[in-house]
Amino acid sequence: MKSYPLDIESMCEDTYIVMSRGHHDLELFMAEAVKERPRWCLGGPEHVWVKTVPGRSTYASFYHFVPQGARGAWPATYCYEYGDGYERYNGMAEERAQ
What residues contact residue 40 under an 8 Å CB cut-off, 6+ apart? Predict the structure, then answer.
């Protein structure tokens, strides 16, 4: 399986969602995500499979969650605003800041 570096990217304009290619350790992923975006109330980390499809007009591409093994799918670690456990992860950021 291909290895991907942990690289947190914002995935949406109107909702706080971040993702990194590859299935990363969820705690390490969340520590980095919260460090990079400390006010986003991120939580609900999970491993997903994603397929990139061409976009239209203003978007070059879109991402869709698909089953593992789907043609063109790649692994990702994903979380979103107010996802499960966001209070705990935001507490991690506050503890580090002190």
Answer: 16, 18, 34, 81
Cα 50 to chain centroid, rounded: 11
Residue the block writes with tokens 């969602």: 17
Tell me the helix, strand and coil percentages in the chain, rounded to 5.
25, 35, 45
SS3 50: strand
Mode of pairing for the β-strands spanning 9-10 and 74-81: unpaired
Residues in the chain: 98
Rounded to 5 degrees, what angle do the CA atoms 51, 22, 7 make?
105
**pLDDT tens-place values along the chain, 98 residues long:** 688 999 999 987 778 999 999 999 999 999 999 999 988 999 999 999 999 998 877 777 889 999 999 999 999 999 999 999 999 998 754 554 44
User: Any idea what the Cα angle at residue 88 is, between residues 86 and 93, rounded to 5°?
Assistant: 95
